[in-house]
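Entry 14. Structure prediction run on the chain below.
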Amino acid sequence: MAKTVTFNPDMKKFPIKKIVLIAVVALAAVILLTSAFVVVPAGSTGVVVTLGSVSENPLQEGLHLKIPFVQNVEIISNKIQKVEVDAPAVSKDLQSISSSIAVNFRVGNKSSAYIFQNIGRDYQDVVLLPAVQESMKSVTAKYTAEELITERATVGQEVQDALSEKVGGYGIVIDKFNIVNFEFSAEFDSAIEAKQVAEQNLIKTKTEQEQAIVIAEAEAQKKLIAAEAEAEAILKKAQAQAEANRKIAASLSENMIEYAKVEKWDGKLPIASGGNTFLDITGKAAE
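Output returned:
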């Protein structure tokens, strides 16, 4: 004979309630366990806030424990960040300047808590950008517009030093500062261009004059060398002629001189008045 099983509704309800309760407890445990840990990413620090109170010692990179529902960890990036800003200014000679600035900066690890507590996450707008503007204005006011162009590297270094001093107290470190562009008024640009053209023309004229002087000096030197060569040639010729004459004079004998006289005699005997004396062909007196 088959056994009859009586269905009891309470038997079905009890396991379902138990399962739901277990699931709720497990979920709460997971949530509680998860909220008890925090991971600080690489290049960041974690500012611990306990019921509104900020700890001065931020958490470093890695996994950390915290008190669930009591402590909260605010992640502050300490990586290098870049910001670009337009910084209008006026030069020493009252020329309007439009400049574009690029700044690489970071928040110091030990300063994360101070910045979060006293400035907040908007420290770029609250501290950094106004400091860039002020530093740019204070430095450019010491230079003329032309000096800002010719001494750009020096100006950039001075602005970076001034900026580092202003934001260093907040724990912001300036890694790199660049003046991307300097722009002046159209009138000033025209004046600079005209000045450059005038300087180039002056250099060209001076160069041409120097070249003309060099050419004239070269021609004069050439003529001088030619004159010296000619004078030397004449001197050598005269010396050679004198030497030849000396040698000829030295080689003449008495007989050759007498022979020359005979060669030149016209055959007429000289006549002497007042006596019978005459010269013979040898030139001696005959009586």
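Helices lie at 9-35, 112-118, 123-140, 145-150, 152-168, 186-251, 254-264.
Filed with the rest of this week's runs.
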